[in-house]
């Protein structure tokens, strides 16, 4: 049903492209405001990315386009996508795992225990970007930039050090895949939007939350969940997107400025991530949260087994060119011409601008 709706909206958008092309150029000179939304608070990596994009967009376009940001948007990801496609929103930050119903490629960054560092996360995003763009384009969306998240861990009322500690826990996860993985440990896991978590914690309906606990989200968990197991479940990413029809209708000079703004913000997001991870852990400890970075060997092995089962399931559902992303990613030695990850188009635009 959702896919049919997106297909219809995509078709409608394409039919409207001629009208958009006719009015876009004059509007650019007069100045236009784009609504830019995320379901996450301002003080998160996603929120800061949206905020930075709005400011950079205005600067690079000379004020022809300004961004009106909305944080903690009370919409699910599918609603944000629909709003972008029918032009109620011009830009949205959408968590990749929440788009898995559209295409399994969107599960890639949330596959458990595959990525172990920020550098790995960036390399995987680079390798997967063409596939991401193709899948988003089929849904009528244009990928502006990939916004990375810190590694996800498990917040809990009681310390979690063994597999047995997870049995029967009521845990919020961020997508259906992670809910299935944690249910494999005997937990009662369910995927819920971030804005639903705090009310459930207040009434004692949750024992744990799978989350990076980044920024304001972490602060909202500290009082009820004073333990954080840094299991590095995944290094997920968000997509910042607009409609493909709107992007293609933008006049060339304005589109060049938009691409430049995108390249700047994407570079900033990745560069800031390592310090952000350390800052989050330091703030947790100052607030009295016990951060456990040493996981029991048995638990670690069990997590890896469950993660491999989920990876194998994913590999069975994607075409060979997408499964090959994992093969190339696992070649961690010196890259060859066949598996090297080149600069993305947007980073190449940014570098060319710096050299000009």
Textual characterization of the structure:
This protein has 356 residues and is α/β, with parallel strands linked by helices. The protein folds into two domains: 2-150 and 236-273 and 331-355, Bacterial extracellular solute-binding protein, family 7 (D-Maltodextrin-Binding Protein, domain 2); 153-234 and 279-319, 3-Layer(aba) Sandwich (D-Maltodextrin-Binding Protein, domain 2). It has twelve helices and eleven strands. The longest helix has 35 residues, at 252-286.
Helix coverage percent? 40-55%
Predict the CATH topology of the largest domain: D-Maltodextrin-Binding Protein, domain 2
Supply the number of helical segments.
Answer: 12
Strand-pairing-aware structural class: alpha/beta
Order of helices and strands: HEHEHEHEEEHEHEHEEHHEHHH
Return the CATH class of the largest domain.
Answer: Alpha Beta
Q: Can you tell me the overall shape?
A: globular
Oligomer classification: single chain
Low-confidence segments: 1-29, 334-340, 342-356
Going by CATH, the architecture of the largest domain would be 3-Layer(aba) Sandwich
Binned strand content: 15-25%
When the domains are counted, the total is 2
- Tell me the total number of β-strands: 11
Report strand order across the widest sheet. 7-6-8-5-9-11
Q: Main β-sheet: number of strands, strand sense, barrel status? A: 6 strands, mixed
Average pLDDT value? 85
Radius of gyration: 20 Å
């Amino acid at each position: 049903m959702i896919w049919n709706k997106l297909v219809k909206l995509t078709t409608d958008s394409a039919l409207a492209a001629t009208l958009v092309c006719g009015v876009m150029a004059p509007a650019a000179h007069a100045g236009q405001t784009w609504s830019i939304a995320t379901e996450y608070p301002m003080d998160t990596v996603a929120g800061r990315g949206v905020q930075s994009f709005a400011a950079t967009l205005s600067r690079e376009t000379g004020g022809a386009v300004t961004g009106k940001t909305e944080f903690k948007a009370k919409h699910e990801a599918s609603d944000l996508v629909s709003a972008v496609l029918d032009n109620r929103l011009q830009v949205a930050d959408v968590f990749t795992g929440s788009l898995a119903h559209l295409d399994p490629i969107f599960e890639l960054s949330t596959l458990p225990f595959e990525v172990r560092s920020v550098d790995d996360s960036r390399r995987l995003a680079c390798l997967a970007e063409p596939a991401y763009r193709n899948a988003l384009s089929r849904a009528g969306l244009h990928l502006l930039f990939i916004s990375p998240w810190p590694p996800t861990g498990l917040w809990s009322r009681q310390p979690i050090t063994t597999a047995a500690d997870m049995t029967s826990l009521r845990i919020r996860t961020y997508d259906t895949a992670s809910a299935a993985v944690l249910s494999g440990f005997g937990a009662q896991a369910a995927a819920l939007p971030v804005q639903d978590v705090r009310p459930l914690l207040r009434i004692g309906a949750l024992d744990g939350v799978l989350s990076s606990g980044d920024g304001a989200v972490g602060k909202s968990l500290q009082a009820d969940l004073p333990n954080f197991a840094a299991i590095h479940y995944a290094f997920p990413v968000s997509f910042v997107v607009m409609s493909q029809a709107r992007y293609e209708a933008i006049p060339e000079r304005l589109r060049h400025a938009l691409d430049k703004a995108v390249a700047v913000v994407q570079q900033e997001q990745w560069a800031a991530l390592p310090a952000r991870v350390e800052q989050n852990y330091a703030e947790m400890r100052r607030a009295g949260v016990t951060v456990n970075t040493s996981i029991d060997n048995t638990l670690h092995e069990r997590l890896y087994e469950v993660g491999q089962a989920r990876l194998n399931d994913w590999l069975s559902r994607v075409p060979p060119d997408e499964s090959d992303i994992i093969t190339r990613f696992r070649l961690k030695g010196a890259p060859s011409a066949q598996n090297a990850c080149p600069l993305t188009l947007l980073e190449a635009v940014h570098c060319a601008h710096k050299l000009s």
